[in-house]
Specification:
Helix content: 40-55%
Shape: globular
Structural class: alpha/beta
Order of helices and strands: HEEHEEHHEEEEEHHHHEEEEEHH
Strand order of the largest sheet: 6-7-5-4-2-13-14
Oligomer: single chain
Radius of gyration: 18 Å
Length: 270
Amino acid sequence: MSDEDEAKQVRSIFISDLHLGTRGAQADLVLEFLRAYDAPQIYLVGDIIDGWRLKSGWYFPQAHNDVVQKLLRKVRKGSRLIYITGNHDDFLRDFTGSEFGGIHIADHALHETADGKRLLVIHGDLFDLVVRNAKWLALLGDWAYTVALASNTVVNKVRRLFHLPHWSLSAWAKQKVKNAVNYIGEFEICLAAEARRHGADGVVCGHIHHAAHRKIDGLTYINTGDWVESCTAVVEHHDGRFEVIRWPQYRLKSEPVRPIPLPALVSEAA
């Protein structure tokens, strides 16, 4: 029996910001999630492959390739894959409107939910003034962000040995730094306004690595989060209900806690 046969069936899957090609990408967890959930339509909401990082040095281990192969396998099994381009995979924007073997590439899409609502699906970087108007500054920020993710890697190796949930320094800082909190709020309002401009009932986006599902001025705002900090995705159930899936917490809750010998703990952390 294949993974797809055992997976939980939902109507739609929305996942973004995998950043495959970077050391911060949680490819093993992405693969676990894709084995656990399946849907006839899958939206990749940008920054799936990190072209910025790959330009500076090739890094694409087997786990990252496994994620790509898993997605292609879902397409071969009949899922329709809509790849919404982001800023880190903007090299694909030259192919906007093209379709390759069941994979449709677009800069945005309109998704109709099971209960008849229309949602704008877009990565969101086009509404980030830093990325749009000062790309060099965005790249500098990307470097600092990579440093923060490197520290996360060491911390989370230890936490996983104790079956503790994934924790992110950069995500924690976003919640504590006033400017970051203000930026997130302004980004959400801007994306909701763009959905209204398209005549949609709401928006599904990514980009800021901050999962959310709430109402803004009567519109639905959904952010899929990411798979370097929060490890989250969004699924639409068959009744039109949307749910944010926080995969590591969900998976770790079901695992028994086992004592870890100190030598093994030190070795794994190193």
